[in-house]
Amino acid sequence: MTGPLLGWMLVVLGVGVAGGNLLRMALVRGWARFEAAAEAVMGGGMAVMAAPPTAAHYGTYSTWWAAVFAAFCLGGVALSVRHAVWGGLRYLRHGGHVVIGSAAMVLMTLAMSGTTSSPALALAGSSGHGGMAGMAGMESVGAHGHGGLAEAAGSSGGVLAWRVAFWALAAYFVIFMALAVRARLRGRDGSRPAVAAGTRARHRHARRRPSLLTVPNARLAGHVGMGGSMATMLLMMAA
C-alpha cells in the first residue's frame, strides 16, 4: 500500500497547489497572473501524473502534456527577459521559477510510460526498474520495449546524466521551498507594505480583517506544495 498511498498524498499536494494558485490568479494582475496560471497547471499535471487510476493515461498523452509545459517554459523565458530589460539583469530571476518548474514537468512527463507505449525518456537503464515504484506509468523500458529517446538514454552514462539532472532539480525545489518559507517569515514577499504615519494612527483601532486568504499566503502555500511534491516525484523517478 506504500505506493498507492504516496501517490494519493501527491495528488492532494498537487490539487492544493492548483487551488492555491487559482486563488492567487483571482487576486493578482499582469504577469503575476501568468505565473499563478502556470503553477496551477503544474499542480494539476502532478495530480493527474501521481493518481494511480490516471497515471498510465497521462503517459499515453505525454506529448500533449509536454507541449503545454514547454509553452509555459517559453512564457517564463519571455517573462524573465522582460523583467531583465526593464529592471536590469538582477531581475532576470523573475519568471525563472516558471522556467525551471515547467522544464521539470517536461522531463517528468517524458519519463512516464503510457498504457501501450514506453517512456520517451528512460531512466531505468539495465536495472529493470523505473523509479516511482508502486505508481502506475513508471515502469521499466524493458517491459514496453524502446521508444523515442529511450535508446539514447539506454547507456549507463546517459542514464546517470539524466538522474543527476533529476537530483539537481529536486535539490532546487527543496531549497526554493525553504527560501519561500524564510521570505514569508521575514516579510520579504510583499506581505508587509509600508504604512504612512497618519494612516497608521487613523486605523489603529479599526477592526482587523482575517488575512488568511491573501496573495502572500496563497503564494506560500503554492510554493511549499509544489516544492514538496516536485522534489518527491523527481527523486522517486531518479531512484
The profile of the biggest β sheet is: none
- Per the principal axes of the C-alpha atoms, what is the gross shape? globular
Mean pLDDT: 75
**Element string (H = helix, E = strand):** HHHHHHHH
| Count of separate structural domains | 1
Helical percent range? 55-70%
Structural class: mainly alpha
Transmembrane segments: 6-24, 36-58, 64-85, 97-115, 164-183
Protein name: DUF5134 domain-containing protein
Keywords: Membrane, Transmembrane, Transmembrane helix
Organism: Streptomyces umbrinus
What would your notes on this structure say?
The chain is mainly α and 239 residues long. The chain has one domain. The protein has eight helices and no strands. Helix 2 packs across helix 8 and helix 5 packs parallel to helix 8. It is globular. About 18% of the residues have low confidence.
Keywords:
single chain, 239 residues, mainly alpha, 64% helix, globular
Question: Could you give the topology of this structure?
Answer:
Layout: H1 2-27, H2 31-50, H3 55-60, H4 62-87, H5 96-110, H6 156-186, H7 197-202, H8 215-238
Helix pairs in contact: 1-2, 1-8, 2-4, 2-5, 2-8, 4-5, 5-8, 6-8
Summarize the structure.
This protein has 8 helices and no strands. It is mainly alpha-helical and 239 residues long.
